[in-house]
Amino acid sequence: MSIKVIGTGFGRTGTDSMREALTILGFGPCHHMSEVIANEEQKRLWRALAKGAAPDWSELFAGYASCMDWPSAHYWRQLIEFYPDAPVILTWRSAGSWWESFERTILAGISQLQDQEALGISLIAKQVFGGKAHDRATAIALYEANVAAVMATVPPERLLVHKLGDGWETLCAHLRVPVPDRPYPNRNDTREFQAQFGLNRRC
Asked: How far is it, in rounded angstroms, from Cα 93 to Cα 111?
């Protein structure tokens, strides 16, 4: 199995809904941070990568047909080259609404972490946000810079910018598959995130 769809959007941009949508459309299993949290071998592999190990994408994504969310989204530049035929999806929401959701969920969880090798600290806080994840202006600037970099780097015909609420039509057109006869998934809102993970199960 090889990665057939690559996600480049930050966590809290609808990545879990997109994960389920891709699975419904036949592009699953979809790699997502929830997979790392639930799997000790995934945790080991991605922690090693965050510490500087050379990536073995075939091993990291063994058994997966697509990837969304962190940790993989941090490596999108390498992934779009390694999987040159895979369509790219940038999940997107306004920077302000992204920060409000991020602050109440992922950032709140990072604040409780003790394990310095946890991806919340070693990858998200330190590498994605340069140690300034708690600074709203810095985090928003980095969020917007990632969006701009994806749009400047990925050819338009390969990229879909999928905004919250866009639903099936543009996604299915981008992936060249029929629109399913069911509602687009709506998963992992702030309340569900907090209830599901309790802000104490960490990767």
From this structure: 23
Give the model confidence (pLDDT) of 112-123 as tens digits. Answer: 998 999 999 999
Residue 132, Cβ neighbours under 10 Å: how many? Answer: 14
Claim: this prediction has a pTM higher than 0.85: yes
Question: Which pLDDT belongs to residue 195?
Answer: 47
Tokens of residue 160, six digits: 């879909």
CB atoms within 10 A of CB 107: 20
Q: What CA–CA distance (Å, rounded) separates 68 from 76? A: 10
Q: Total domain count for the chain?
A: 1
How many degrees, rounded to 5, is the angle at CA 130 between CA 128 and CA 135?
100
Is position 202 within any domain?
no
Residue 168: give its domain's CATH number.
3.40.50.300
What range does the domain containing 71 cover? 5-197
